[in-house]
Amino acid sequence: MLAQLQVATEGLPLPGPEASGDELFRLGLLYSTGQGGAPLDYVSAHMLFNLAAMRGSVEAKVYRKELSEEMASDEVAEAQRQAREWLAHG
User: Fold this and answer.
1) Alpha carbon distances (Å) from 33 to 41, 43, 61, 77, 90
2) Which of 45, 48, 65, 80 could serve as 32's disulfide partner, Cβ 3.0–4.6 Å?
3) Integer Cα distance of 28 and 41 in angstroms
4) pTM of the model
5) How far is CA 79 from the centre of its chain?
């Protein structure tokens, strides 16, 4: 179930704190490819892959690493900040 906590940019609502690693991973895929109504947004994708990895998704760890190699260091830092903020609101 998706619950909108805060959406900094246009896109899909952020998942609620009950979201599974698989749900977070699937949403990260949408942002990393710009499909399913999500804009192409590597920062959001990295944030979601990070959260999914924390919830046990092995695939998310692989995708997060690959995506971070395509991102500037300040973008990765912003994704990590957003992940911490999401966790604080959960």
Assistant:
1) 8, 12, 17, 20, 26
2) 45
3) 9
4) 0.85
5) 8
Calpha distance 53→39 (Å, rounded): 22
Which residue type sits at 46? Answer: H
HSE toward the beta carbon, residue 26, CA cutoff 13 A: 9
N-to-C CA span, the chain: 14
CA angle 5, 15, 3 (to 5 degrees): 55
Tell me the pLDDT band of 12, cut-offs 50, 70 and 90.
confident
